Amino acid sequence: MGATAPTTPPIAIRRALEEGWAGFRRGSSTLIPFTLLVGGLNVLCQLAIRFSGERIVNVYGQTDALARTGFLLAWLAYLLSNLWLVVGLLQGANMALERQRPRLRDLLRLDWRALGRAGGTLALVLLVLAVIFRLAQASAWLLALLQPLLVALPLLAGGAAVIYVVTDQLLSLPLTVLGGHGPLESFRRGRAAIDPHWLQALGLTLLLGLVLLSGFLLLVVGLAASLPVTACILVAAYRQLFTRRGRVPERGTDGPGSSG
């Protein structure tokens, strides 16, 4: 009989939490200022979007070409700053988990290839989520015509599908930014790794959501810490599954704790 392909081990949530926290402590002196700088740029872009959007059409009902150009540039800068923040935090978290102290100038340097891959991966995941949402809406509309009592079922199914996809693609960004994979390959590899142990990945997703929620409740100071902590935990989970150095030896394999 041929040997079966080895399955990816489940994510050890406690280990990811401990390693991620240790990485954050090691790199916090860089990760927090980076988050404040790029996050501040992001807020300025949002203000510019609002300011220019209010002036696209003047009091006479005429379109202001300068305001429209500023509006488009502000949106581009806003999207770029979001990608910059994601890529920088993931790269800085990986350096910290490698027991290196990340340098601010390294994180502020724009990695255009990583930005492009991250943007493509986010666009792919958002497209899948948008298709699910539209299908749920269309199904609910049809059921409202045929059987109004069942109209909530497609919306519940759509919500469950959204949770499934979000959890399934938990590691797609680290695969893109750190692994160097394109959007489709990251989508495929992330799904292959998460699917066999989806409940463990759901637990990690909920944990990361709680960390981010605590940051939102504490506003600027909280987000400046919670975003790097989330990135470190996520990268720690990624390293468990996709880097040899981060993997836990399986039972029956050579390694600490295995039988001879």
Can you walk through the features of this model?
With 260 residues, the chain is mostly helical. It has one domain (13-246). Helices cover 74% and strands 0% of the residues. The protein has nine helices and no strands. The chain has helices spanning 13-53, 65-97, 104-108, 112-146, 152-168, 172-177, 183-194, 198-217, 219-242. The protein is globular and about 60 Å long.
Based on DSSP secondary structure assignment, what is the total number of beta strands? Answer: 0
Radius of gyration: 22 Å
Largest β-sheet summary: none
Instruction: Give the % helix.
Output: over 70%
Number of domains: 1
Mean pLDDT: 85
- First-to-last CA distance: 24 Å
> What kind of assembly state do the chains in view correspond to?
single chain
- Alpha plus pi helix count: 9
Which consecutive residue ranges, at least 5 long each, have pLDDT under 50? 1-5, 248-260
N-to-C SSE string, H for helix and E for strand: HHHHHHHHH
Instruction: Categorize the overall geometry.
Output: globular
Sheet-strand content, in percent, reads: under 5%
SS-based structural class?
A: mainly alpha
